[in-house]
């Protein structure tokens, strides 16, 4: 199953929600167009996405 990993500074809950929704949708769309992949029919619900927030060292 596709796995997406993001490293970022601190994010709001809304920013995380938007990242998850939009990155998953775009990745699914791109992979569905790539007919050469065995998993080209992967639906969005089968993606795993993690967000690792890295604290600002100056805080």
TrEMBL record:
Per the record's keyword annotation, is Isomerase included, yes or no? Answer: yes
Q: Which SUPFAM superfamilies match?
A: Tautomerase/MIF
Give this protein's Gene Ontology molecular function annotations.
Answer: isomerase activity
The 4-oxalocrotonate tautomerase-like domain sits at 5-31
Ranges in coiled-coil conformation: none
Q: Which UniProt keywords apply?
A: Isomerase
Q: Which Pfam families match?
A: Tautomerase
Name of the protein this chain belongs to: 4-oxalocrotonate tautomerase
């Amino acid at each position: 199953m596709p796995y997406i990993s993001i490293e970022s500074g601190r994010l709001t809950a809304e920013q995380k929600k938007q990242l998850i929704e939009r990155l998953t949708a775009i990745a699914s769309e791109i992979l569905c167009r790539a007919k050469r992949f065995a998993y080209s029919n992967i639906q969005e619900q089968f993606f795993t996405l993690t967000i690792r927030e890295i604290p600002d060292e100056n805080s």
